Amino acid sequence: MSLASGAMSTSSLSSGVDKNVRPLLDLIDDMRSLGIEAYLPLPQIAVMGDQSSGKSSVLEALSGVPFPRGTGLVTRCPCQLTMKRTTEAGWSGKIGVLKAGDVDSPEAAKLAGNVRNAAELTAAIERVTSALTAGSPTAFSSDSIVVSVAAPDVPDLTLVDLPGIVRTVTAGQDASVIQSVNEMIDRYLAQERTIVLAIVPANQDVATVDILERALRVDPSGERTIGVLTKPDLVGEGAEDEVVSVLKNERKPLRLGYVMVKNRSAAELKQGRSLGGAARDVERRYFADHKVWRTLSKEYLGIDQLTQRLTTLLTQRIQKVLPELKWELQELFAQAEAGSNRLGQAPPEKPLERAKLVLRCSAEYCTLLRHSARGDYREALLSQNPELRLRAQADAIFRTLEEAIGDQKPDFDDLDFTRKLHRELIALRGRELPGLLNSYFFYGFMARHVEMWRPLIEGAKQALYDAGYTTAAALADELFPAYPRLAAAVRDELAAYLDSSALDLDLKVEEVFKHESDPFISRNELAEAILKVRFERFETALDAVMTNCGTGPAEAKKAAAQERATDQQAKSSTNARLAESHADAAVGASQNQTRGPVQQIPQGNGIRPSTPQGSVPQPNAQMAPPQQMAPPPPRRDDTIVSKEDDQRRRKMEELKDHPLKEMVLTSLGRWYMANHGVTSMSMVEDMRTVLIAYWGVAAKRITENICALFETHVLAVFAEDIEKRLLEVAKADDPVAIDALLAQDDDTKRQREALKKQKDRVAAALNSIHRFAPNVVARPPSDKNNPEIAAPIAPMTQDLSGGPGTSLTRQHHPNQRGGTPNANPAAIKTNTPSAALRGKALIESFTFTSNGDNGGFVFWLGTSAKRERFTNPHDKGRLRITSSGLAQGTESLLVARKRLPCWTNDAPDAWICLDLGRNRALAPKYYTLCNGSPDPGFDLLSWVLEAYDPDADLWVDLSVRDQQLSLPSPWGVHTFPLDAKNNAWRYLRIRHTGLNSRGTRELPICAWEFYGDLYSVQA
User: Fold this and answer.
1) What is the pLDDT of residue 807?
2) pLDDT averaged over the chain?
3) Is the separation of the CB atoms in 949 and 828 below 8 Å?
4) pLDDT at 37 over 80
5) DSSP string for residues in 727-786
């Protein structure tokens, strides 16, 4: 077919594309040819509508290419049509295939080629479609046909033709076609940079058009949806007013409005009416001759008007997103460069160079480990990864130890403790004179309590060793991602060193205990502590006395009378009762006066801690104080009276007859005798005072000594000792051993190649922006669709009863910790979806390309839809991970994209659950797991991947049948297919169903990723 016979008018094209617009269109086409769409969505126009709605006819009119026609599902895979207007005469075209997920395929290369004219292109489209769908006329493919046309009579546009919406299947068609087509359309609809070209037959009620409703859900503002009315010649006479109201945006209005076009009818196709200028002339005459259409403004009618609108819309869209696109490309380049730097270059070939590489790696590792142990986090790797900061973890362990020892402090103020102390002192009474303490009892008491600290210190030592191994192993994994065997060798040396050094450290810890079990103080520290305790008790007793005295002379006299009466009653008691009363009174006095936390009283401010009235103990005959004030201190000179002495003497004269005098002296005297006399209870109080004071000194001292020991013999020498071991490994005169350390697996090679491809493509795209739009300033995307969410809410499960003799076992609750309720651990499997996908808007689709790629849901969520650097989405509250209980690691580690030790407790049916959030559901197609063990021999052998059905309150098994399950250690990574059961799910979990290679029921998983279609659901 010749297109020269009906060339498009130059004026219509020049109105759509000018010298300022053409560079933008060329820029996007250049990016598309570079494959940037594999990483970022580009501005485009997608043609959508029902089957037989006229989509292909619109494309024909725009491009001059006769697309395949027929009934039913003619378009069975996406077709990307790129048109470029040239100034040279002639026509050229190309056809190719873009595999889903940007996967290179030899078959795709075989299908690509040049075509000489439009007729050949039509045949080529049919041929490639047949190849992609395996020759089945009812099959469907997600791979895209890429068509490029260059001619002087085509507009500068790029459109994507999608399969028509399928409502029912016909004979020979698979029912899955409906879902597959819907998913593809929803995926394109969800992309904010896609302009929706909604094809609507003019003879159909616009209120029933499905594509308009779908577009409204994802584009409520209508800024990227334009309607095209087709088949105006099929509108019945008298029904034109309905079509006019639609065109004028009165019925089912769109912000961008509608355009009506007249394509070739079936009769014209049979007559062989050509495309191009002749077809446009026919269209113009049709609208001009129609009695209703001719009354409309020309802005509503014709393919030329549609071309101008689409060109304007596309260029405006490009101008709007280009700053964001540049920012995203810069971020992609930075990520690819960081990933490439992390993996490094392939190891050198020469043995000497390989040995030098091992030495350099070992030196770099030990330098970072030394800085980590010292708390020097200036390197980017340490500053950006808190889990690699050994000193910070050690400080936390030291603080925990200090708190744990503090929690072991006896309740010295408890009455039972005082009575027990009294009994033990009496039982251990020796030849010491009255008023002297039993030092042997003191030594024994402290020796017993020092031993109580041993388990705490042992636990702190083990925690420090665990932190040292975990941090150092994680550092090796971060530094040597391309050399997993070198990282494994580092872990082996770490384990060997820690085992060998533990014995030496135990001997030094034992020395600390040996010294501490024999109480010793070389300074006045204990004396100061004792004085502090006594001062606090005196302040408390004084406050109690003043409270009991009341506020005036009358109350003071009354209280003094009560004191004398009580003393007289105590004198008439029997000797046995007197002794008992003496002991009880002294105990009560000490407890009431000292119970509860006592604040240090600042001197000179007159403030004392409050004590309830009545807390002063009852008087005792043997503790009656002297009735006279103590004489004033002797003067320094008998003949010269100082000013201070004179003031003191006048003050004492004033207090001589004060009504509070007798009460204060009586109460304080009794308190003094109870605490500082020569009775057994006063000895108890003295011993208690010494124990309180020395316990504080000893607890502080042993904490400081142990922490200093750990600092000196672990943290300070850790890196140096490991470096010596690694140097021995690196200096080994064995090329085979060096080769083994630098061996790389296929996944690492694929990752390196993928990152290099990404860097090259993105760098070329940034160069294109600089060439076509040098003044564009990069700007981060808006947060309009930021995937951050509130913390999700878990569903409540209920028991469901089946028929007679059967029961539906209540399964694991997604947020429940612990084992499965009831006895049956197996999940009930069903093929019935809990809710239809209809009504759920597609947000994004995630295509698996390779293990560790950046194309999964977790990475998308952690980068805010690839708009920022990755951060842990669990820590940000964007999703939630729960488990049956972890023995190693934390739940958030599962989405940290790091290799760190992580596994569950050893329990039946151990599980880990992912909660996507209340507004999201995923129809998973693949999932990737990483073994959480850093050591071999911990292979995962049997498990299931399940989804939670809230309607039936049970877990549905999504695992594909008859697949071989195995996840080797250390750090084994593999991707497995899933059957989503025609549904999308909020909760996904992995559940252990047998034993691992250790013969235990632990589930070793440290990371996972999911691929499939993500939907938005109503909360």
Assistant:
1) 29
2) 75
3) no
4) yes
5) HHHHT-S-HHHHHHHT---HHHHHHHHHHHHHHHHHHHHHHHHHHH-TT----PPPSTT-
Cβ atoms of residues 960 and 811 within 8 Å: no
Computed from CA positions of residues 446, 448, 449, 453, in that sequence, does the dihedral angle turn out positive or negative?
positive
Q: Which two tokens stand for residue 184?
A: 């593809």
| Distance, CA of 536 to CA of 548 (rounded, Å) | 19
Segment 834-870, tens digit of pLDDT:
444 655 778 888 988 878 888 899 999 988 887 777 8
Angle at which helices 575-594 and 661-676 pack, to 10 degrees?
A: 100
Contact, 169 vs 177, CB < 8 A? yes
Q: Which of 104, 742, 675 is nearest to 485 (CA)?
A: 742
Please give the Cα distance from 33 to 112 (Å, whole number): 14
Which band of pLDDT confidence, cut at 50, 70 and 90, is reported for residue 490? confident
Cβ pair 930, 805 in contact under 8 A: no
pLDDT at 198 (0 to 100): 92
Report pLDDT for 902: 94
Residues in the chain: 1019
- 985/578: higher pLDDT: 985
- Quickly tell me which residue has 């009358």 as its tokens: 554
- Provide, for the chain, the percentages of residues in helix, strand and coil under a 3-state DSSP scheme, each rounded to the nearest 5: 50, 15, 40
pLDDT on residue 18: 55
Distance of CA 44 to the CA centre of its chain: 33
CB 991 within 8 A of CB 919: no
**Spatial distance between the Cα atoms of 960 and 878, rounded to a whole number of angstroms:** 28
* CB-CB neighbours of 788 under 10 Å: 12
Query: Which residues 6+ apart lie within 8 Å of 219 measured at CB?
Result: 189, 196, 225
In three-state form (DSSP H/G/I as H, E/B as E, the rest C), the secondary structure along 790-833 is: CCCCCCCCCCEECCCCCEECCCCCCCCCCCCCCCCCCCCCCCCC
- 């939907």: which residue's tokens? 1015
Per-residue model confidence (pLDDT) at position 581 = 41
**pLDDT, position 598:** 37
Largest Cα–Cα distance in the chain? 145
Whose CA is closest to 971, among 494, 493, 474?
474
Average of per-residue pLDDT across 735-749:
76
Average the pLDDT over 966-987 and give the result.
90
Peptide bond into 970 cis (omega under 30): yes
Residues 451, 463: Cα–Cα separation, whole Å: 19
Residue 929 pLDDT level (bands cut at 50, 70, 90):
very high
Helix axes 661-676, 680-710, angle to 10 degrees: 60
In the numeric block, the tokens 């400081």 are attached to 704
Residue whose token pair is 């050690």: 394
- pLDDT at position 702, please? 86
Q: Does residue 71 contact residue 53 with C-beta atoms inside 8 Å?
A: no
Q: HSE (CB half, 13 Å, CA atoms) of 236?
A: 4
Rounded to whole angstroms, what are the CA distances from 627 to 70, 667, 682?
A: 123, 12, 22
